[in-house]
Automatic annotation (TrEMBL):
It comes from Streptomyces kaniharaensis. Keywords: Cell membrane, Membrane, Transmembrane, Transmembrane helix, Transport. This is Nicotinamide mononucleotide transporter. Belongs to the nicotinamide ribonucleoside (NR) uptake permease (TC 4.B.1) family. The chain crosses the membrane at residues 83-102, 156-176.
Amino acid sequence: MCGNVLGLSALALGWRRSVWSWPVQLLSGAVLIAAYLGGHVPGLIGKQLIVIVTAAWGWTQWQRGRRDTGTIAVRFATWPERAALVAGTAAGTVGLALLFQAYPNLSWSPWSDAYIFVGTLAAMVAQARGWLEFWFAWIAVDVVGVPLAFDSGYSFSGLTYSIYFVLVLLGLRSWWLSTREPRLQSATVPQGVTA
């Protein structure tokens, strides 16, 4: 319960473009790993490991991005960036699913576990870059992750991830509206991102 509440808090902080979204995500991941260790859900554990590693990286990206202006500029990814994100996600999912199939003790649901694992990475990379596609990636992950959580006996996690959907829609709207504000178009953005 604590891990999921922290996850909701991290999403709400991300919606507000607060750099504190990242350490809260990191803490949420650590708490959820402890909870998931009792079940055979390597995709969910892997997802949280990705959350921890990527949260540390995203935190540094956003700290750099807000150093001068105190805010994080967000934007839609370019078409080449979107293509790279989608291609990387698809290739990563297939590769990881094949690995899970080759070693069945790693996953009882190779394709869904791989999809959740790689989709989470894609979402968090997009968030760290300040791309609005981050919100769409979370929707895509939750489409598989919510039913899997319920099916695995983690009903509270499934319910919490269902609530994410509402926050994701609100966050997407907020970020999209911020791209319309001229003052944010010239703000400093995370390293590797152009306004």
